[in-house]
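Re: duplicated header lines in exported structure tokens

Our pipeline writes sequence and tokens for each protein into one text file. With two proteins the header for the second block appears twice in some exports. Here is an export where it did not happen, for reference. First protein block:
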Amino acid sequence: MNSASKDKKYKGLKAVAKSFSYAAEGLSSASRSERNLKVHLLIMPMIVGTGFFFSISRYEWLVVILVIGGMIALELMNTAVERVVDLVTDQYHPLAKQAKDIAAAAVLVYAITAIVIGVMIFVPKIIDSIGL
């Protein structure tokens, strides 16, 4: 491999590392400032612990991981939409309100979906464990 190829590869790896760094910075910033994201991040270990406690199946784990990841990702996207709208205008505008409300509604729909999935996975296990 010649020197130019090594430099190009190094720059590519450096750019990837930098993009991961920016993403981590965004997650850190949002987790410090966003109340709803804090709630989700607090609930996440409880759900994982419950999964271990009830020895959920591999497929149930896949669903739980997808739901948790999707919830965090959607909360981050909602935060990004709010930030962009706030950057564009500091005055009330009906379209700005709609953008924020619609992004929040997407989170709400997913949260309801996550609750339904959680109930479907965990309630039968809870019922079995208490002998009903």
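Second protein block, exported in the same file:
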Amino acid sequence: MKLDWKIGLGLAVSAFFLWWTFRGEDLGVIGSRLASANFGWLLAAGAISTAGGLIRALRWNLLLGPVGVETSLYTRWTSLNIGFMVTNVYPARLGEIVRPYALSRMSPVSMSSALGTIVLERVLDAIALLLLLIVALLSPAFPDDATVLGRSIEYAVSGAIIFSVVALVSLSLIIRWPARVTSFVRWFARILPGHVQDGLTTQLESFLSGLDLLRRPVAMLQALLWSLAVWIWMAASFWVGFRAFDIDLGVTAAIFTQCAVSMFVAIPAAPGFIGTLQAGVAVSVQDVFGVAAEPTLSLAIGYHIAGFVPVTLLGLYYASKLGIRLGSIESEAEEALEDTQPPPH
């Protein structure tokens, strides 16, 4: 298997975060607290999280607009769930490649065009999450004496603002001078190994293929509003999850928790965000908002399971209907990705 080293790295990262999150805690007490959770609220949290895929599917239609090909809500929803399932069971975020591959199997959309929208999604998600993070940090309900990883909250506010400004300026430069940016990246990539160079060039070209949307201010604003809707909806699933474990926290905490978890799960780890998701919940709910360890860590486990199981089962169901076999999905996705590579010069 070509991804052996990535599997090892991901497992090591997950093991570290699991140790870091649960170190010194009584796992028996946490397990008892998990068993006594309100499963009605927990199932509702999982249902809300899973239903968030519908909002993503609606947004994806807008991002696919410049491609000029009609896709149905069903094909986008199906592709999303297949991609999420693969991310949950395969290493190296393979689901990010499988999702456009699945869509290309069901709709007249090329793999490269669909892949470009995935990269654009990540940019929109980052902007939306940073905006929500700033709102949460500046909210009167946010603890004045809170620290994040031992640092004053002022560092987090300043860092989020600086990162947002840098990201927006960089994006503006790419939109304004795409050819110059492409030339610079290709010049820089010459010092990298061949496979890394090809991968970087392909990712850039895929991203640039989705820039037509960014050059239309109204469409861009709509896409950003959809992205905000996605993450506000997902924050609602955490608010409902709080209720399952009698954690008395409000909307501000739910938004901050969603932002913290999103940052942690961006770290390459084992499939399904094992360890990184738990660490994100612990940093937010326990360290920042001062909730005791037992309900916090029970939430981290219960919420993860409630969201993991339904989307994985849906993805397996849709993959079987589409004739995608788990045993060959990696090679199929890699072959499809190689087809998007530019021919050697």
